[in-house]
Amino acid sequence: MNRISAVVRKSKARNSSKAKCFEQYQKLYNKFSIPVYAFVIVNFSFIGIVCVIYSQIVKSRVDGLLQANNSDDERRQPCNQTRRRKLFLAYCCQLAIRFALGIIFIVLQTQLLYPSNFPSNFKCNLTPRGSHAVNSSGNIQNTTQSALYECHNQRATKKTFWTNAVSAVNGVFALLILIEFVCILVRARKGKKFMEDSQFLKDHLNAVLPQNPQQEPERQDSQQELNEEIPLLAYKKQNCCKNNHNYIIHREHEEKYHRRHRATYRSQGSIST
């Protein structure tokens, strides 16, 4: 019975030591007790929310441009309406916000939340309850002894992997966004027409503007007329060449006739004399 009670006490002491070690580990490497998965979810959720808000803001403008191009109403709109820069400004704003969010999350992760990542092995300093001892003068005093334990966290490797992966993804996205932002500013500096909604939608967003269906019959009619005119022109050219040839032959016959007539007239005159 005493042996069973000793095993139970040892098990309770071990569980208590594990709990205290885990508490110390959390204080050292996760001060705010924020789980890694929660940080990952919040990180990418904010970026997704920014993208959704941007798409909802520009959706009406993009649809309006597509419909205007389809119905050929854009030419009838005022000049200041067709040259608006709403898409350009909205796109640059969402790029700037995404870039700022990436930098902010990198700083939060590396400097505030998880500055030392999650090491697998760490030393846990446990101080048991004080024990009573009698000194040389006969006074009773409390003595404490600290115990240093080598602890191992099995999930530390996985947490470290995810924190490093999130930091790398945020860094790559921030770099790509910065490059794109610089390229946009360079193209906008070369020509202000690039910042206009229709041109920006076509050149940078790579949107395929539908062709006006009313222009298709006109193209077909013009092509048909051209196809009809080509044989007609060839026929006229052929007739013209043929008429020219006949005219040349007719002139040759006339000249021969006049020469023969003059020769006959001269011979008759010589005989009479």
UniProtKB/TrEMBL annotation:
UniProt key word Transmembrane helix: yes
Key words of the record: Membrane, Transmembrane, Transmembrane helix
Domain of life: Eukaryota
Region (Disordered): 254-273
Regions that span the bilayer: 34-54, 87-108, 165-186
Name of the protein described by the UniProt record: Uncharacterized protein
Native organism: Desmophyllum pertusum
